[in-house]
Amino acid sequence: MLSNHIIVGEGRPPWYKSDGQNCDCYVVGIAGASASGKTSVAQRIIKNLNVPWVVLLSMDSFYRDLTEEELEIAHRNDWDFDSPNSYDYDLLLETITKLKEGKKVDVPIYDFETHKRVPNKANTVYGANVIIFEGIFGLYDKKVLEMMDLKVFVDTDADICLARRIKRDVAERGFDVAGVLKLYQRFVKPSFDTYVYPTKKNADVVIPRGLENLVAIDLLTKHIQRQLQERKMQSRWDMAKISPPKELSPNVIVLEKTKQIDGMHTIIRDRSTTRHDFIFYADRLATLVIERALNELPYETHTITTPTAKTVHGLRLNAHVVGVSILRAGGTMEAGLRRVIRDAVIGKILIQTDPSNGEPQLHYCKLPPSIRENSTNDDTYIFLMDAVIGTGAAGLMAIRVLLDHDVPEERIIFLSFLSAPQGLHIISNAFPKVRVVTSYVDPVLNPHTLFLEPGLGNFGDRYFGTEND
């Protein structure tokens, strides 16, 4: 039976600020006896909170792999899984630390039947506003305790815990009743008395009777909500209301206004433009944007010999360019990228907005291996591509994903056809080292003129077509 690791939401929203120390992530630790109802209490808290970006971590995910000798003992039901020595605290601490910093983590999936982590499989999480960590030793390790904002101990009667454990281990983990009782008498109860119960003194809140104590859980939830409110969680629609400064950031580069560019924008904005012409002029415009972005990359002096045996001193690009398109509209710039850089490798990120709350959600991420391999080298630069920068929410999340893959902020160049001042301001404010290259900045954030509406009003639909085409 695989461990019960639960992820609620899609991870941390992209517009948070964190320097690795002063982080706005709120961490709740929940401990208690085995089968005391820790997971149920955590799920109830999450339901009551009713906010996105919540991650529930189970300590069951952090059992360490057993050696062959230890596996033989475990299969005889003689291994103490309720001992602190059965857990990988280093990995647990590393996981919570990265989550608090907003970095991507791969949470192991543990198989209770094989007593090992499932190879080549993990639950990937991209940070969170709230982390709820539950387990029998949730309040045991000193370093983990120091990372918690709120510590909870679920105090349930021992007989109820035993009955629940028998039901769970027989139904979900492949044990028989005799085996469960044997483990309980030899390991579970002694471990609780020796290690788990003493951690009750570390708790800020003790919840008697677990999930049955709805009053205590509701009070706890309200406390967490107040803490989150104080940390000023901000939604995408809040960002859209921000009044940008009159002057753009120095890191925002707008193509020089020419008759050619104005003419192409006139054509692609014209409702009567055919799809064939729309693609043609969009590709031309993308080529100009990408060529301008190449000016932001490093060059080195290079001497060549011409066919007439003359020596010429020139420049050579000293960078490796990787393209990443934000699907679907970002794919409209891929043809332009390949026109300029024939061997460009392109990755894809799919980010869609939750219509219920306006939050961007990451649905798909496939980045070229060269990003991870070359991210620490000085010659790798990422051209992040999207047709339009509106509120900036999708761009912020895409940049956050690249940073989570160890891409330095200063080596990300964001490319777009059209931009709104709000989105440019928000991106520049959140990631001041990221450069943005765009062909045109609309005076205001207007979905009608920024190709943000479905059908004819959407850049990607006009370029790639729709089901009705």
What features would you describe in this structure?
With 469 residues, the chain is of the alpha/beta class. The chain has 2 domains: 6-233, 3-Layer(aba) Sandwich (Rossmann fold), CATH 3.40.50.300; 238-464, Rossmann fold (3-Layer(aba) Sandwich), CATH 3.40.50.2020. The protein has helices at 38-49, 68-75, 89-100, 142-146, 158-172, 177-196, 214-230, 236-240, 259-269, 275-294, 334-340, 369-374, 393-404, 421-430, 459-464; strands spanning 6-8, 26-32, 54-58, 105-111, 116-125, 130-134, 150-155, 205-208, 252-254, 299-305, 311-317, 320-327, 345-353, 360-366, 380-385, 388-389, 412-419, 435-441. The strands form 4 sheets. Strands 9, 12, 13, 14, 15, 16, 17 and 18 form an 8-stranded mixed sheet that branches. Helix 1 (38-49) crosses helix 7, helix 5 packs across helix 6 and helix 9 (259-269) runs antiparallel to helix 10. It is elongated and about 90 Å long. The two termini are 48 Å apart.
